[in-house]
Write a structure and sequence with these properties.
alpha+beta; 4 domains; eight-stranded antiparallel β-sheet; flat
């Protein structure tokens, strides 16, 4: 039987929260030989036992003790497999360990030790390793150490008598030298993260979803909704924790011979093809790690070219650069600095700039301070029209209004990059929204704002807080007196806004996997997905629901909400739109020629054979 909720063992019985299987009881229906394979023609009973193909080890399984809750057949089968006299178990395992370290196994068909298998190149070595493994208590770590300290493993791929030995054993079946090996896809990705300084060594927990381009998602029926990209911190974990679906594999991984997830894989193919070079040159992940590595080196060396080059070689190759390498690297850096300086000088605007919001699927609120405003004589905002259009439910847009002149925030023209804003005084200004904004627990919210923070109390951008019934389960997005972010009570603190008096882009997301907050493109915090919020109206802007307190103290130029968690590409699109409109610099790629030049050098190092291959 399966999991506890399916009638199988509970979490307490298993000792851990995993999908476990066990027998229904200590007895089971007898297994019968089917005559001609027909299930309605049962023959004689086949008693439970080990494989009869090894007569010396054939064992009939005993009946379980009277107090047993299971048949104990799996236990007996496990004991039979791990019997020290078993001729295959230890040999199969040490053969795979050898393959892991050398690229080829002693028995070159690791999935087949039968009559059709390839005979071992060194049968006595295989027997000795198997005996050592069993005598050492079946300890895999001990075997790793034993193999890696051997003289065979420590050989170079270059041999002084290469031509002589190659004539006799060109395929190196006798291991007279070390085979040069390319890193597999997981090790290559992890190596890039390691040298960039971003590698997250967190162990265990749910898998992370890597960033997947729109082109890679094109084959899925639900496109972006079928793949929820994790935060940068989670995406920087080791590849063993990467979410892998049979129908959706990361292109960079498959380019470097990621395992076929639809078939058993005893040994991966190892190819060297032009598309691998193209992937390393153009893939966004490789560029991101090159940039991060450059930032790490600049921080550690202070920007001195000679020290930066030396540190880059240490990180990428584990050695110091030679004289000729240093000369070429210095020339490359200077050339790249000159090129990027000229590019940045002549660039009028970012190539990522956009003039209009392109992402509008399931947009539920869009307030912009230059649209749909009605103000009184004192420029107090009476009405602020929602530009999102009719909702999916056919309701009217969620317009904002304030009937009390004393509580109206003010329209301020030319406040942020020649764009208007709505200014809240932090005392009693707020706006009421029409209807219920959110109907889904998954959402995205973007705000362009500034925070004067002179009142040193909590203050909210938007909220549906209500003292009756949902004081702890409401939805709100705002700051504390110390500029810590709160994305409802379920996610607080959720990062800290830097330089809050300077206009900023603040974003919050809640998906099926996690909640996260960003300032600009920089992630500030992430947590598990929010516990369910009470999303009923009314909603207000600039105050904590009907609390009559926690008023926003600063400007709000634009507020956008979606009834879903946007994917990475969509978030980038919205950020680019807001950054261009309000003249803000997004910090994902530093516009420092030295950084860009060093990132170019780091990118070159990550494309070299010395980085890609084990020699």
């Amino acid at each position: 039987m399966g999991q506890g909720n399916l009638g199988g063992p509970s979490k307490d019985e298993l000792g851990m929260d995993v999908f476990g299987w066990t027998d229904k009881g200590r007895t089971s229906e007898p297994f019968r030989l089917l005559i001609k394979g027909e299930r309605d023609q049962p023959g004689g009973v086949v008693p439970p036992a080990s494989l009869s193909s090894i007569p010396a080890l054939e064992v009939a399984f005993a009946e379980p003790p009277a107090e047993s809750k299971t048949t104990q057949r799996r236990l007996q089968f496990s004991l039979w497999i791990t019997n020290p006299d078993h001729p295959l178990t230890a040999r199969v395992l040490v053969n795979r360990l050898w393959q892991h370290h050398f690229g080829e196994a002693i028995v070159r068909t690791p999935n087949n030790f039968g009559f059709k298998s390839t005979p071992p190149t060194h049968p006595q070595l295989l027997d000795w390793l198997a005996a050592e493994f069993v005598d050492g208590g079946w300890t895999i770590k001990r075997m790793h150490k034993l193999i890696m300290m051997s003289s065979t493993y420590r050989q170079s791929s270059q041999h002084p008598a290469y031509e002589k030995y190659a004539e006799r054993d060109f395929l190196n079946n006798t291991w007279w030298r070390f085979n040069r090996r390319r890193l597999d896809s997981e090790a290559l990705r992890d190596s890039m993260l390691a040298v960039s300084g971003r590698l997250n060594m967190k162990m265990g927990g749910p898998s992370f979803y890597p960033h997947m381009s729109k082109e890679a998602l094109e084959g899925l029926s639900r496109k972006a909704d079928a793949w929820d990209t994790s935060t940068l911190k989670e995406r920087s974990r080791r590849s063993v924790y990467m979410m892998t679906k049979r129908s959706r594999l990361l292109p960079l991984m498959t380019t470097f011979d990621f395992a076929d997830t639809t078939l058993p894989c005893g040994q991966r193919d190892v190819t060297t093809v032009p598309t691998q070079s193209l992937a390393l040159l153009n893939n966004h992940f490789v560029h991101d790690q090159s940039s991060a590595m450059a930032g790490r080196i600049l921080k550690e060396t202070g920007g001195d070219p000679a020290m930066a080059i030396h540190r880059a070689w240490q990180l990428a190759y584990g050695r110091s650069p030679g004289h000729d390498e240093t000369t070429v690297a210095v020339a490359h850096l200077q050339s790249q600095v000159d090129i990027f300086t000229e590019i940045l000088k002549n660039r009028v605007k970012s190539t990522n700039s956009v003039t209009e919001l392109a992402v509008k699927d399931k947009i539920v609120l869009w307030l912009r301070a230059d649209r749909g405003l009605q103000v009184d004589k004192a420029k107090g905002v009476m009405f602020w029209k929602d530009s999102s259009g009719p909702t999916a439910e056919g309701l009217h847009p969620h317009d904002a209004s304030q009937s009390d002149p004393a509580k109206r925030p003010l329209l301020v023209t030319d406040a942020i990059h020649d764009q208007p804003t709505i200014r809240f005084d932090g005392k009693d200004d707020f706006l009421q929204l029409t209807g219920t904004i959110l109907w889904s627990q998954h959402f995205s919210i973007f705000a362009v704002a500034s925070d004067r923070g002179t009142n040193h109390t909590h203050r909210e951008l938007i909220s549906n807080w209500h003292r009756r019934g949902r004081s702890t389960t409401s939805f709100f997005f705002g700051l504390t007196g110390k500029s810590n972010i709160r994305l409802s009570d379920a996610f607080a603190p959720a990062g800290t806004v830097t330089n809050p008096k300077t206009p900023f882009i603040l974003s919050g997301f809640n998906s099926k996997n996690e909640a996260s907050t960003y300032q600009g493109r920089k992630i500030l915090a992430s947590s598990k997905t929010l516990s369910d919020r009470d999303l009923a109206g009314p909603y207000v802007i600039g105050v904590q629901g009907n609390n009559g307190a926690e008023f926003w103290n600063g400007d709000i130029a634009e507020l956008i909400m979606f009834e879903r968690s946007l994917n990475a590409d969509e978030r980038q699109s919205v950020w680019n739109y807001l950054a261009y409109r309000y003249g803000m610099k997004l910090d994902s790629r530093p516009d420092d020629p030295r950084h860009l030049a060093l990132a170019s050098l780091c990118h070159v190092l990550m494309n070299t054979n010395e980085f890609l291959y084990i020699d």
